[in-house]
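Worked example 3 (structure in, sequence out).
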């Protein structure tokens, strides 16, 4: 195995789908380097969400999913969940938590203990996303775009090695689309040497170009 493969993400003979319908079959992606944003583009129904859910361990799959040379498919789900975070297009409905509480819960899920310093990290992230004023608002009272931003905060606070974003801009206005993609790009660069990778799929990618990523 080459050093290049060991320092990035790759898929080999990867298949995913449902018991009676194959969606992704025998997909091989040789190498996606660390510290980069990769955009997965395709028409509706082409299997983008199915692929990412399977990579996160949320759907049946087979083959190899290598992260730094380690096959994530052979790991227990709990171990993979520590390394891979999948953000769906919409957050689960009916969650009656404050925004701040929901992000602290996500932080604890990644092994972080609650403390004043940890809470300040959460608030700093909310300020970066422009939603600090929503900290004490309930999730089930937010708009679709606000929920997307909270979901992104929940994902970022966990500091995964691989972040899978499914249509992360779909409910945001144009100004927030640029703001969010700029934030993701900056976080990608900042964390590059810690080993995270970012895989974004969206129909609008205003800031993802070969020169900015």
């Amino acid at each position: 195995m080459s050093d290049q493969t060991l320092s990035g993400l790759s898929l080999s003979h990867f298949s995913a789908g449902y018991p009676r319908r194959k969606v992704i079959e025998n997909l091989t992606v040789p190498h996606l380097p660390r510290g980069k944003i990769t955009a997965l583009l395709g028409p509706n129904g082409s299997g983008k969400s199915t692929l990412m859910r399977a990579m996160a361990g949320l759907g049946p799959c087979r083959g190899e999913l290598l992260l730094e040379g380690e096959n994530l498919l052979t790991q227990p789900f709990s171990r993979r969940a520590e390394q891979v975070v999948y953000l769906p297009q919409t957050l689960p409905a009916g969650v009656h938590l404050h925004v701040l509480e929901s992000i602290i819960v996500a932080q604890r899920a990644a092994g972080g203990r609650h403390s004043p310093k940890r809470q300040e990290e959460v608030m700093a992230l909310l300020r970066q996303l422009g939603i600090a004023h929503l900290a004490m608002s309930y999730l089930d009272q937010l708009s679709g775009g606000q929920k997307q931003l909270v979901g992104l905060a929940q994902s970022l606070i966990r500091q995964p090695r691989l972040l899978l974003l499914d249509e992360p801009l779909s409910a945001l206005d144009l100004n927030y689309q640029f703001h969010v993609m700029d934030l993701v790009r900056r976080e990608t660069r900042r964390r590059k040497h810690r080993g995270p990778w970012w895989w974004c799929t969206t129909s609008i990618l205003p800031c993802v170009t070969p020169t900015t990523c």
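Notes: The CA atoms of residues 2 and 193 lie 19 Å apart. The chain has a mean pLDDT of 84.
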